[in-house]
Amino acid sequence: AARPPVCPGAMSTILILVGTESGNAQMVADALKPVLKGAGHAVDVTDSAATTADLQAHDVLLVVCATHGSG
Q: Does residue 9 surpass a pLDDT of 70?
């Protein structure tokens, strides 16, 4: 069951930009999306390079990127 937004009317448009090799960062982004949507935000997830227009169309940019080795 979806919970109501924590702050009604305070919705943000969020772009989650993913950089992954093994798929773990994608799994994190995919797990974040329903949580953020459940809080009332509009969420887009992409692994494509974002353009200036993409960034300007969103209030928040979240970058989820994996590291390897001593990362």
A: no
